[in-house]
Design brief:
With 218 residues, this protein is an alpha/beta fold. The chain is built from six helices and eight strands. 42% of the residues are buried. The mean pLDDT is 93.
């Protein structure tokens, strides 16, 4: 498509087609999820399921892409879907449900790629469990003030080792953009190489440091 011509600086036409044909779920449409959703749609993703039971509140205005005065009090999933509808070819589906053990199978049926942009550890571990069981690529993201991580998980569990405390949700606008960019870059690397190893990328924005641990035992 002409709209995505400039993606050819990082994607071949065949890789662009793979993205357009992928069925993707993004769990969480807030700080991380908003930027991931925007990036996916502009990379040419068409079939995106947006899963979030929450509504925007005034405290979201400092960092969440689809939080505006006119969307406060409105569904995050629906607001994000309405925005993505303006990007050519994108056909988003809003799911206003909280992902739980008893509904994950139903909500995620037919999904081939999942982005973890949830704001709580329970959901993150549930997504990892589901993806490992179904052999679905999981692109995890987590943020905490000036620190965050992004991971690609496909072969073995990685999250329990560093999600060992309550989730912190105090964030400004900078870190969600940095971590979502890492998630999207891992996604592009996966599209270009289906044999991508499991990997965790850590970022310390205050120290301006980025490092990664690649699981060579996958």
């Amino acid at each position: 498509m002409e709209e995505f011509f400039h993606n050819r600086c990082i994607l071949s036409p065949e890789e662009q087609t793979k993205i357009s044909e992928a069925t993707i779920a993004v769990v969480g449409a807030g700080g991380l999820g908003g930027y991931v959703l925007n990036g996916l749609a502009r990379l040419g993703a068409r079939h995106i399921k947006i899963i979030d039971s929450d509504v925007f509140v005034p405290s979201n205005l400092n960092r969440q892409l689809y939080a505006y005065k006119q969307t406060v009090g409105k569904s995050k999933a629906i607001s994000a879907a309405e925005a993505l509808n303006n990007i050519p070819g994108c056909v988003p589906q809003a799911v206003e449900e909280e992902l739980r053990e008893d509904n994950a199978e139903r909500i995620l049926t037919g999904v081939g790629i999942i982005f973890d942009c949830a704001d709580n550890i329970q959901t993150k571990l549930l997504l990892e469990k589901h993806c490992l069981k179904k052999t679905i690529p999981l692109f995890h993201g987590g943020v905490d003030r000036t620190y965050g991580q992004a991971a690609f998980i496909l072969h073995k569990p990685l999250l329990a080792g560093f999600l060992n405390r309550a989730s912190a949700t105090e964030n400004a606008v900078i870190l969600p953009q940095l971590v979502s960019a890492l998630q999207l870059q891992l996604f592009v690397k996966y599209i270009k190489n289906n044999n991508l190893s499991d990997i965790i990328c850590y970022i310390d924005a205050e120290a301006m440091e980025l490092f990664r641990i690649e699981n060579s035992d996958s």
